[in-house]
Design brief:
By secondary structure, the chain is of the alpha/beta class. It contains 8 helices and 15 strands. It has helices at about 15-25, 40-50, 65-70, 85-90, 105-120, 125-130, 175-180, 225-235; strands at about 5-10, 30-35, 50-55, 75-80, 95-100, 135-140, 140-145, 150-155, 160-165, 165-170, 185-190, 195, 200-205, 210-215, 220-225.
Amino acid sequence: MKKIKVIIVDDERSSREELKIALKEYEDFVLTGEAENADEAKDLIETTMPDLIFLDIQMPEKSGFDLLESLDNVPAVLFITAYNQYAVQAFEVNALDYLMKPIRKERFAKAIEKIRNTITPKYSLDNVAKDRKIFIKDGEKRFFVRIDEIYRIESLENYTRLYFEGKKALQRRSLRQWEEILDESIFFRINRTEIVNIKYIQEVNRAVSGRLEVKLKTGELLEVSNRQAVKFKNLNSI
């Protein structure tokens, strides 16, 4: 039987206890920890690498959304909330499901079945890399995005703009910070202000300026700086 590693994040102890009791009926779900706030949860997630988070949205100081935005790798999420408006937001960001407090046994069973049909437990680093997601918050818009679906990252002073699935979103994270968390065999910094996903490169040509120029599958034309050109040419994937 495949085991699904779970953590519970909720500031209310009674809610955490309620979830733990409910989970005892499902042997394939293994509780690996619990946290009562976003900071504790971040440390726990990075240490235990769970497959799934039961996550309360409304918590003091930092919300469940704030927690997700702080993670470099976001597990699958099932939101727990006492407020209907947050349930709507949960589906807007493509969460697996949401549960309203207090939790009903029949509704919990349906959520468990949905999770079983969706999640692939991360038994290997290959699975972790393949399914790796981040949570993006841009104003009122929120997205779960697979890392390998990001095709371009553009520096804008203290922000970066991410391009993915025909969308774009601003993030308060520098290009250097992105370089630290991205797979260098997939993402390449082509110049001072841009990183591209090499899987989205359609053509490599010589621009009028004499520099290398890449054409992405999305149609954008981007120049490779002279400094990065040598490294770029040596990429096995190009």
